[in-house]
Amino acid sequence: MAWHGRRLLVLACALLAAGVTAAHGQVPAEFKVDYQFARGGKAPLLVEFRTNAPRGYAVKWTFGDGATATGTKAAHVYYAPGVYPFAATLYDEAGRPVSRAQGEFVVKWNGEEELALTLVFGEGTVLLSSHGSVVYSNYPVTLTLDGKDVQALPLAVSPGVHEAQVRFTSAGGEVLSKTVEFTVRPAETDLTLEQRLIHLINNARLDGWDCAEQTGGHRPLPPLTPTVMNNMVARSRALDMAQGDFFKVVSDTDGSTALNTAGALGYQPEAIATTIAAGQRSAEEVMAAITKAGSFCDSLTGDYGSVGVAYVEQPDSRYGRYWTVVYTRP
């Protein structure tokens, strides 16, 4: 998810009363308030604030919806669409107000209230997440696995059929729910194969692979950095395909994409791309397929900085072997 940022500048002396000086600390020449929020500005909207308040000074926030906070940094969720005046007041070490920044948020409507349920798979585990739900209040969302309330944490699951559900009761008393049934099957992974594919991907970038001409020797690209988060997203996507016996970038299980999986793990990349392959026994076979597949090859040579790879083997599935590559920026 891309973030938009803004900055408010207010002269530090704006609230200094006659005869009041900053004897207890250095007041900044400008009191700066930065904030960022998700592209689109739609409810429910998380806004992250920070200031340049000097050490020893305090900041008090009002967000325009009745909520307040203190601290040089603050995060606030605007649950409902509307116009919200917000302000940050800077207090010196003696507790005197010395500056104030204020602005206005316009939070957009995001459609009718709707629940999202994303399943993040690990080896013998599943995490349930309601990330991406559209709910216009801070009433709690309830997650259940096989009829028991659970938290959004990795949970051990045994082989077999399971049922996950998310529920929400709105302020008006309307009950919303979404249920997903999924099957867990024993599967094998292979770290050596995964590392080999990452090596081949970076070699192709360094060699300046050109997708149109199908040759190397062109402008080299920087290697991609393997990350734990990218690997977790890739692992979940590959396990989902192997256990659900499908071959798609959009999950047959819960309708999620790699971006949804990343969001469920608390990761909001600026850009993300997914490459999938099935049936290949070696990283070399996968690489040969990637370099010849239009959009997948474009991802290989795209403007990304991080990568994650997963290989999952499930003999009882249609293809037997499933590969996922996840590219992200930043």
TrEMBL record:
Domain of life the protein comes from: Bacteria
Entries under Pfam families matching the protein: PKD_4
Keyword vocabulary terms for this entry: Signal
N-terminal signal peptide: 1-22
Family matches, as PROSITE patterns: PKD
Domain annotation PKD: ranges: 51-99
Transmembrane segments: none
UniProt-recorded name of the protein: Uncharacterized protein YkwD
Organism the protein comes from: Deinococcus soli (ex Cha et al. 2016)
Phylogenetic lineage: Bacteria, Thermotogati, Deinococcota, Deinococci, Deinococcales
